[in-house]
Amino acid sequence: MEQTYHNPYHNTFWEEPSFSVYKHSTNAARKDHETGRIRLFATISGHGTIKINGINYPISRGSLSWIFPYHSTSLTEAKNLEVIEISFPLRVLLQILDGPNQEQLHKMMFQNHFSPVITYPNAKQLEKLFDEALQEAEIRAPLFETLVLANVTKIILLYLRYIYKGKTKIHYHTRLESSSVFTLSFCRATQHCKSSSAF
Length: 199
Description:
InterPro entries: AraC-bd, HTH-like. By secondary structure, this protein is of the alpha+beta class.
């Protein structure tokens, strides 16, 4: 009887490319298209205004913007705007958040401090991370997905560190209160709800 070999290191997570990375330039407003992916944008130059769920956010060099699949978005104005976009499935975010410090990361991401747009103080560092991801995606050399994942992980962790900078120490049993709507929307979008004790 012929034996079949099972590779213990086989992982279907990366069987299809998970990341798309593009550079965009525009001087015109536009309505956003629907997408089933998370998108991160780094504004490299110029300025504009992005509307997310009815709220206008000014963007300029150093701005980091998050677009989730359930967000309603549009670019209401743009002047010499240049951005780099990284998009990926929701499962990539879940993988990052399920790493070390899982409970703390879930709390930081899904409680009421989340903001879809921030101005990161070190614009050069932000641009470098996005530009490296762009170069890897264009060259598509072996292991490029893993290298892009490393940059995306760092971008997300720097974002979380920034929004919590100067805030009080996290209390693990804090009620979700105003963040409950965000958490419920995320659960519906991902169909990957966690119990409240995981946050």
